């Protein structure tokens, strides 16, 4: 496990990266399996590690920060070469990240960020979460074209960087458009089941005829809400417009069927760039930028969503 000291001493400094990676042991503290996107990220991460011959130690935290902290401490005790962390919430990481730093174990953040000094992690591989919210808001601004729209919002996990940033971006985009108003906003914790239950409460509180659009911080909550809207006798994608984020296969299918209107793609492959950065850092100290940004792409009914669904449906979502 203590390969890196040997490497940094130059003992095998000229070994090809592939040979080098084959000796790495990396711990991965994953949030859980709350959404289709999360499941795809896990699938892709395991495949990216296997492709490199990396020994990946996987820990599923079942959405609990205390389980992630325990997993990180276990990885440190095992003397892994590096740690991947998808942090369920943004705060409460300083102490355990200090412990990893003291053990000279680099940490790379995946898909979410932390409110901690940036010398406590090597780099963060994420999308621009605020931009995603802006794109969603701008889509609705354009779609409504000045017409009034009472919006309900399904937020992601409370305290997580995507929930905070996607809300910020959406509100920035609709600011100054007085025809658009968020009338209800509540967390659905990124899951289909909670998305359905909270949407049911929105429909009951507001009356479905008084809701013009749903903004969901991820597709899974939107898919749950679609069922609630149908159960209320309304047509999702028509009576209530729906925009969300992730571009999972079921979102493309919903758009193809007219049940949803737009989604913004989030790649599940955060691990590829993360492992590339780690291999370079551990091999010769190459320091990556503090943020490795992944792309965000808007999909609407104008795209061939049925074909995209067919392409994506077997990718581990
Ligand atoms: C965003 C990521 C979010 C996804 C959800 O980067 O952390 O977590 O949008 C997942 O599907 O639950």
TrEMBL record:
Keywords: Signal. Coiled coil: none annotated. GO terms for molecular function: carbohydrate binding. Pfam families: Peripla_BP_4. InterPro entries: Peripla_BP_I, SBP_2_dom, YtfQ_transport. Belongs to the bacterial solute-binding protein 2 family. This is Sugar ABC transporter substrate-binding protein.
């Amino acid at each position: 496990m203590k390969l890196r000291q040997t490497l940094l001493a130059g003992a095998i400094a000229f070994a090809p990266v592939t040979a080098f990676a084959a000796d790495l042991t990396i711990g991965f503290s994953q949030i859980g399996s709350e959404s289709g996107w999360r499941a795809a990220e896990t699938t892709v991460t395991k495949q990216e590690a296997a492709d490199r011959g990396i020994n990946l130690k996987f820990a599923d935290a079942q959405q609990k920060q205390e389980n992630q902290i325990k997993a990180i401490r276990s990885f440190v005790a095992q003397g892994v070469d590096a740690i991947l962390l998808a942090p369920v919430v943004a705060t409460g990481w300083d102490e355990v990240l200090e412990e990893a730093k003291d053990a000279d174990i680099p940490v790379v953040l995946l898909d979410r960020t932390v409110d901690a000094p940036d010398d406590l992690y090597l780099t963060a591989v994420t999308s621009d979460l605020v931009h995603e919210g802006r794109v969603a808001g701008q889509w609705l601004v354009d779609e409504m074209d000045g017409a009034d729209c009472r919006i309900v919002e399904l937020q992601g996990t409370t305290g997580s960087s995507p929930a905070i940033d996607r809300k910020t971006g959406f509100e920035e985009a609709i600011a100054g458009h007085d025809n658009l108003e968020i009338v209800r906003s509540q967390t659905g914790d990124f899951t289909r089941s909670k998305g359905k239950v909270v949407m049911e409460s929105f429909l009951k509180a507001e009356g479905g005829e008084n809701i013009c659009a749903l903004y969901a911080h991820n597709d899974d909550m939107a898919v749950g809400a679609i069922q609630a809207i149908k159960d209320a006798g309304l047509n999702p994608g028509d009576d209530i417009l729906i925009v969300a984020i992730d571009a999972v296969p079921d979102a493309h299918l919903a758009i193809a069927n007219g049940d949803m209107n737009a989604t913004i793609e989030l790649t599940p492959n955060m691990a590829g760039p993360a492992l590339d950065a780690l291999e370079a850092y551990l091999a010769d100290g190459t320091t990556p930028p503090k943020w490795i940004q992944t792309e965000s792409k808007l999909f609407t009914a104008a795209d061939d969503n049925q074909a995209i669904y067919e392409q994506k449906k077997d990718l581990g979502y």
